[in-house]
Write a structure and sequence with these properties.
Elements: H1 2-9, H2 14-39
Length: about 40
């Protein structure tokens, strides 16, 4: 669940959390671009 994921991430270092956040942003951006290209 979202809450479990948040709790697990609380123990991340600042650098680790930044890395994880940037990876997630990359996944979201790629998915959105694929959808735009597919619908384009």
């Amino acid at each position: 669940s979202v809450l479990e994921e948040m709790e697990a991430r609380l123990s991340n270092s600042r650098e680790g959390e930044l890395r994880t956040a940037l990876e997630q942003i990359g996944h979201i951006a790629r998915a959105r671009l694929k959808r735009i290209i597919r619908e384009g």
